[in-house]
Amino acid sequence: MTPDAQILAAIIIFIIAYVYAMVLATAILKYNIHYTCMVNSPRPLHTRGQNYYIAGHKGPQPNCLVTFWNLTHIVMYTVLGILCPDILPEIFMMGILFELYEKKKYECHDLLDIVYNGLGLAIGYGMHLTFCT
Cβ(50)–Cβ(107) under 8 Å? Predict the structure, then answer.
């Protein structure tokens, strides 16, 4: 895929993710898997905003290392790493800017999402090198 096509793909994926996270999941999909803890932490974490679950549900924080939402970050950024290998730094920066937006606008951020985004990009890039070249 050309760099221009990769930019377009990334923009489309980010728009879909934004609509899903800020509109669909908060309005339609309340009180289900979105509030599930996938991996517990032995100690409380203090990386999430007060409105981490923007719809008002309190969920499995603060002793949850990986929530369903964190897992969606890993999956989305894995896809981006596979499809957009030439613009990984730009994608990573967009993820950081989105987390800052979530913090400022909604107080629904999780600072660990930046780590999970990077992990997803690394997995995706590795898969791209393994299967697409």
Answer: yes
For the record, the structure tokens of 128 come out as 């791209």
Domain ranges of the chain: 3-25+34-131
DSSP code string of 22-90: IIIHHHTS-SSGGG-EEEE-SS----B-TTSSTTS--TT-SSEEEEHHHHHHHHHHHHHHHH-GGGHHH
pTM of the model: 0.89
Amino acid of residue 28: I
Q: Roughly what angle, to the nearest 10 degrees, separates helices 88-105 and 112-131?
A: 160
At position 81, the amino acid (one-letter code) is G
Tens of pLDDT, residue by residue over 29-85, are: 555 666 788 899 998 888 888 777 666 666 656 788 998 889 999 999 999 999 999
